Amino acid sequence: MTSSRLGLNCFEHDMGGTDSAGSSLISAPNGSLDGLLAADHNSMRIAQIAPLAERVPPKLYGGTERVVAWLIDELVELGHDVTLFASGDSRTRGKLQPVWPRALRLGRPRSDPAAAMTALLETVAQQADKFDVVHAHIDWLHLPLLSRLGVPFVTTMHGRLDLPGLSDVLRNFPGAPFVSISDNQRLPLRSANWLGTVYHGLPAEMFRPNFRRGSHLAFLGRLTSEKGPEAAIRIAEAAGMPLRIAAKVPRGERGYFSERLQPRIDGTHIQLSGEVNDATKEGFLGEAAALLFPINWPEPFGLVMIEAMACGTPVIAFRSGSVPEVIDDGVTGFIVEGEEEAVEGVKRLGALDRRKVRARFEQRFTAKRMAQDYVRLYQQLSRAGTAPQSALAD
Hints:
By secondary structure, the protein is of the alpha/beta class. The protein has helices at about 35, 65-75, 115-125, 145-150, 165-170, 230-240, 255-260, 280-285, 305-310, 325, 340-345, 355-365, 365-385; strands at about 5, 15-20, 25, 45-50, 80-85, 95-100, 135, 155, 175-180, 195, 215-220, 245-250, 270-275, 290-295, 315-320, 335. The chain has a ten-stranded mixed β-sheet with strand order 2-3-1-10-9-8-7-4-5-6. Helix 2 (about 65-75) crosses helix 13 (about 365-385) and helix 6 crosses helix 11 (about 340-345). The chain is globular and about 60 Å long. The relative contact order is 0.15.
């Protein structure tokens, strides 16, 4: 099935074509994205279904919930009527439909996740016919329900798709429409009904850029082996620069942390803080010379990369997953093949202009652009009444 990609790097794709996955590409001259996406501007009734693990937006960690919050804010700004189905402690510019009192990860006493999700799906089922389109962010759980309700819906997949069993699930829902957050993400499930790729975006005013080059490197993310914290430590040590780590230690990774990471954290050259929030993230990223992103997995998007770019901070990232789609090599950072190239990248940071890093963020990765991309999808789905196989192919 064909699909179309939105949120494109207009600097690399100045003519239409196809990507390596056979997807149709839509490109536009610099500054003309608004015109490309303009359709009719009638207000739509849009439901957003968020995960229940974190509130929307999350207090600390929670990439999906954060993106959902930004998307809703921009949709409301564009004049749409948006209802968020989420935990009761969520905050939104749209209308909140609480389905469970508190988000599951930090809620006390602990709740049964299956019970919470059952409540979510029942609430959606009762109200689905009120909306022009339903946009789900909860992986696969809603598919049996929404496929039978007759309301136009779309699912954004936020995680990795190379896990066992996913293709078996997909075969049961051949017409269900999906959106990927990078072209690379969809490769394990090429036969899915991909309507397009919509890159994440964040509010342009969220972070103030810092155009002074810092004297240390930064690592921000979960402390798991696939995120590459050990490689980040080795790169910083080889480059002779301090490393500041702001990270969450997942409950199931505490053994990994105590055995592989904690002995390397000396509090001076390698420093660890806890999770950062939006207020402290600006300083953490903006004061760094670069963000290290030495991933060892097929990263679906990598929100922290565009957060760093919003601060004017370049990214040194391993070539894996979405990285080549997000980083403009030699402009917003360096795409490297391993630790040795990463060390060389650190030495070449002076060749990058932090003002250009911020400018490229504003051109490619704002929440307004993300919302406009989704609105075009919603309009196509709503007019069709059901999910077409390629809603954006034209």
